[in-house]
Specification:
The protein is α/β, with parallel strands linked by helices. The N and C termini lie far apart (about 55 Å). The strands form four sheets. It has a six-stranded mixed beta sheet with strand order 5-6-7-3-8-9, sandwiched between helices. It contains ten helices and 15 strands. The protein is globular. α3 crosses α4.
Length: about 350
């Protein structure tokens, strides 16, 4: 599942996207790009702005400033582009509770138009809902309704799929199922943008992860780079690093303690890495994937961002002008953002 070339029009693109409700910024200067066949996950704490980004991309909210493009079009100026979109924005997805899952999907298919007759049964099977397909949705569990929502979003084989917390309330088996279906959709060329809290699962099937904090995208991690990284224990680390840096198929080689970590070009595996080291006269003791801990990385980046903001706010307070009251005590002036 390699990234599409840059010359391909992004399926989703935002540039300095900003949304305010009154004076309060909810999303600030957010830029991201999702190519066809990619899965991009937005992660962050509650209130970070993930759902607002999903609504902006889906055309359900207007940006205060910045731009959104879906398949090269503005979804507000050209709403017809949304016919190529599948979405679950409010979790769980809304269905008629007194109708069966199958009949709800028939209504979705009729409204969307152009859905083949067998597609409903196919999606019920893929989401493992066939045994409950003819029961009222009102008795479905939260996880079942979530799976039905994903099935509805995929009925039209959309080119763009946007999902807000699609795995919320699911048991581990259902969670794995939804992630597998999203991965398969990407393999078929669909661009997927989702918000989630499931960091461990994200590493297994997403291409890109955007870390959000207080409405800002503070980091973007390309997980494809992490999947081609290997941790190696050898007899001579400096010599191994020098050897590997001379190889055109090695993108990065660096020392980490008593090991070296090498990032290889796509399609290059541990066998070639091992052969190069041994062929260069270096004893190889151990080789394995350099496992990326997304949770630790997320914690580190959010902690650093919060510390940075605290320092900025402290400097702003310290720089505020002072005046002296009648008792000779220093008082903060109104300054920037101060009370008058």
């Amino acid at each position: 599942m390699d990234a599409a070339p840059d010359r391909v029009t992004p399926a989703i693109e935002t540039v300095r996207l900003t949304k305010r409700y009154g004076p309060r910024p909810v999303v600030r200067d957010l830029s991201l790009r999702v190519q066809p066949g990619e899965v991009y996950a937005l992660v962050g704490p509650n209130g970070a702005g993930k759902t607002t980004v999903i609504r902006l991309v889906a055309g359900l909210a207007f940006p205060t400033s910045g731009t959104v493009r879906m398949l090269g079009e503005d979804p507000h100026e050209r709403p017809s582009v949304r016919r190529r979109l599948g979405a679950v924005v409010e979790a769980p997805a809304a269905f008629y509770p007194y109708l069966s899952g199958r009949r709800n999907l028939r209504l979705h298919a009729r409204l969307a138009g152009g859905v083949p007759a067998g597609r409903i049964g196919e999606m019920l099977d893929r989401m493992e809902l066939t045994p409950a397909a003819d029961r009222p949705v009102g008795i479905y569990s939260l996880g079942m309704r979530q799976r039905l929502g994903v099935a509805a979003a995929l009925l039209t084989r959309p080119e763009v799929l946007v999902l807000d917390e699609p795995a919320s309330g699911m048991d581990p088996l259902s969670l794995h199922l939804v992630h597998r279906v999203l991965r398969e959709a990407a393999e078929e060329g669909t661009a997927v943008l989702l918000s989630t809290h499931h960091l461990e699962e994200v590493v297994a099937y997403c291409h890109l992860v955007g870390l959000m904090e207080e409405g800002e995208l503070i980091d973007a991690v390309d997980l494809r780079d992490r999947r081609t990284r290997y941790r190696v224990r050898v007899s001579d680390v400096p010599a191994a690093v020098a050897l590997l840096r001379a190889q055109p198929w090695v993108r990065e080689a660096q020392r980490q303690g008593d090991h070296l970590v090498a990032a290889l070009a796509p399609g290059t595996g541990a066998e070639r890495l091992s052969a190069a080291l041994v062929g260069g006269g270096i004893d190889l003791f151990e080789i394995g994937p350099d496992v990326f801990d997304l949770r630790a990385h997320y914690r580190e980046r959010v902690t650093a961002e919060r510390a940075r903001r605290t320092a900025v706010e402290t400097l702003a307070v310290d720089a505020a002008p002072q005046r002296f009251g009648r008792a000779g005590r220093a008082e903060r002036g109104p300054g920037r953002g101060g009370a008058r």
